[in-house]
Amino acid sequence: MKVYQHKVQYYETDQMGFVHHSNYIRWFEEARDDFFNQTDAPYKVTESKGILSPVISVNCKYIKSCYYGELINIYVTLVKYGNVKFTVGYKVVGAENGELKAEGETEHCFLSTDGKVISMKRVWPEMHEKLSLLQGISTGE
Known about the structure:
Blueprint: E1 4-7, H1 22-38, H2 43-48, E2 51-52, E3 55-62, E4 71-82, E5 85-94, E6 100-109, E7 111-112, H3 120-123, H4 125-134
Antiparallel strand pairs: 1-4, 2-7, 3-6, 4-5, 5-6
């Protein structure tokens, strides 16, 4: 799978010239969406079946600043998949120098449109199998 690339935009920076910390979380979402599109498990398809996957926790460790105009690669891994919850890992790396800029994880659960936790295995066995096979798979490898 291909790695997700992002060019840092001016509006993503703060007064100090660094990318504002909140944007890393947005980049995680962009990269996660791209990852699931590449693996033929896009949100659009799961949501059309009435299955939502909200973020229930997020963490990000900031290591080196990103700057306006910089091209970054975001590597995504389905760290853990377990029927009703899953965890996605991220590494934000400078595309030109390979420097690790940030890393983090998001944890998600599966919900029905009325807000009830659901079992992917029970509700959509084919997707459950597909996601089970993706555990440990990363972009850019």
